[in-house]
């Protein structure tokens, strides 16, 4: 497929000429940043978007522009309450959608937390693994039947998956010393592996799944990070880029960051992205696990796409949440 898009493409670039009228799309994490822009760009092209958020009051304020763009372009927007750090909330939100019975064309699992201090979800899971992976695992599997043939699941992961593979022997850091970015890496690897196994399980009925890296963007996701740490990280990334003869690191804008999610959800051919990891509006190449690679260098670790690893994570996740999914 000819690829006119790249790292600097925006949501409007990838959606030029795309009519989404009649499409029903669910986006989690619509109270800030990428989730708001993702929802806005989709309703601006005629879609009906169901936005899920933990704090509905905050989301109401954050999505004012979403509603304006929906009204101006034939789209529509509604909010549902979803706290991914609570399996009870995830199940309740899913049950409401299933009871409503309206099919979905796309689910974009955008919500997440990053580099949090050690903590636990309402169900006793380590915060990042519990919120970023297990909350979505339960919520999405419970509404999977709503995805119509031709539908897609897009999981937001990150280049942060390079920090760590999943640790299925100690997912809650009960015996492992807690490191915020190791925990983040585990959860982001889990997001990819969930997409890999979901794709395998659902592709025969015409539903595909993929994971995406939005790029480096300054959003509320970084609220737990010390500004000095962020500055040091940018310096390190720039030095890595220069050593490899690449341009210095630059933050993406939010419309650039949301572009890959939108591209994978509605523009890219399903057979191209199914079971894959995408960044900068294209499918990433696999980097061997033993090969040194910079955090923001292109590529996905092999362990994050390994089918056996994906099946093992699925089984472990079912054990942790106490629920079996077909």
Provide structural commentary:
- The protein is of the alpha/beta class and 326 residues long.
- It has one domain (11-227, 254-321): NAD(P)-binding Rossmann-like Domain (Rossmann fold, 3-Layer(aba) Sandwich), CATH 3.40.50.720.
- It contains eleven helices and ten strands.
- The chain has helices at 11-15, 33-43, 56-62, 64-73, 87-100, 127-143, 180-202, 227-243, 254-267, 270-273, 307-321, and strands spanning 24-28, 48-53, 76-81, 104-109, 147-156, 208-213, 277-279, 282-283, 286-287, 300-301.
- Strands 3-2-1-4-5-6-7-8 form an eight-stranded mixed β-sheet, sandwiched between helices. A two-stranded parallel sheet has the order 9-10.
- Strand 5, helix 7 and strand 6 (208-213) form a beta-alpha-beta unit.
- The longest helix has 23 residues, at 180-202.
- It is globular, with a radius of gyration of 18 Å.
- The two termini are 33 Å apart.
- The model has no long low-confidence stretch (mean pLDDT 93).
